[in-house]
Amino acid sequence: MNPSGAVLIVDDELRSRESLQRVLSEEFDVLCAQNAQEAEAILAGDLVQVILCDQRMPGETGVDFLRRVRETWPDPVRMIISGFSESEDIIAGVNEAGIYQYITKPWHPERLIDCVRDAVKLYRMQKEPGGLGADAKPSHDTLNRVLADRRREQRRMFEFDRIVHEPDGPMGATLALARRATRYDISVLITGASGAGKELLARAIHFGSARGDKSFVVENCGALPDELLESELFGCKKGAYTGAYQDRIGLFELADGGSIFLDEVGETSPAFQVKLLRVLQEHEIRPLGAARSRKVDVRVISATNRDLESEVEAGRFRRDLFYRLNAFPIHLPSLAERPDDIPAIAANLLAEVNRAFRRNVKSFAPETMALLRAHSWPGNIRELRNEIQRMVAMSDDDAPLAPELLSPRMGSGPTAALPGDALKDQVESLERAIIARALEELDGNISRAAERLGLSRVGLRAKIERYQLRRDLNDVG
Predict the structure, then answer these.
(1) Which of 93, 228, 317, 411 would you label with 308, given CA atoms 20 to 30 Å apart?
(2) pLDDT for 13-31, tens place per residue?
(3) What is the DSSP string of 215-272?
């Protein structure tokens, strides 16, 4: 085990966990948990010296979690990360939770490492004033076993079989194509709408490939200006630019032997595209300010919600880079294109929300599920997750989630069915609204609307007649 000790990161956001782990793992053994239950299981093994917890988590704040931890596991040094430097809920709970320090976002890597170093020193002093005693840290073998188990668990977490879908639906063909991509060490370009799950598919490709035991790192190329993006991906030498206080390893070097996922690659500038092209051609990177290049062996999986071929024709994206990235193209269908998957996806997300919120909501009311299936979901799975979180938060018990818990944009809510109406009238009113919306969104195409709603064309036509919804309809498949 690294003599600096084991650090536990508790954060519900995957990218945030990976970012913290990436910085800290150069000096510390790092364990990660996405929720309180996972964190408590790790703490029960007596492996942790420092807990680094995000403040904003669903169901429970970081301060509340650390307050509970203090009662059962008082030894680990507790730290909080927050986006608000003077957040009242943090300040009020610092003493009660025994929080050693809180770090504000955006955090600086060197500052973060210094804070954790100090926390490890404090842990040692608490265990034995003269230094770290023989029993003050977990054994090397025990921690290595736990770390290996976590790596295996991560691989299982992102297996293709974990991606919820109906085998005969459009997602089945996409996953079959993606499985083929795991066999060959070539660049993959995933296209599809924002929120459709491109990163999840990229992880499945990586962990299903021969590189699955190595690093998988992620960067959103549209979130940073060129200079910072270049530093983040290729690294930099101390003094290369204002704010470069020390040498920094880039993500390509950290991913050596593994894979890098370049999200929103279509947002990069032509100037940066030249530098990225060189990396793909030469298989080497040159950190900012460095005199020499370094060889790297990295598989590139990229993603975009843009039509890159149109971008190439418009002169906004380099043709040669496009062909480098597009060696194995995969298109990910949107949620609106796979309505039959929605019940299973919603049930899976509900289970996640239950764990995060410490609730036990079992299911959705049939009327609610009908509305979920009929919605167009412009925000895709991300929007569906948010909707389910809201519904669970709004519910007062663990009964099936009723349609009035949906947000107004879903076409339900208290005004959708008045309390005085008979149940039959409420159900018919809801059904009419669902069918009308489906027809409107599909430009009156009865065949497609029937498919989305799980009805036969004959059955849907009968309901259209019944609810007097006939407009400019067609029956084109």
Answers:
(1) 228
(2) 888 898 898 889 878 889 9
(3) -EEEEETTSS-HHHHHHHHH-B-TTSSTT--S-B--HHHHTTTSEEEEETGGGS-HHH
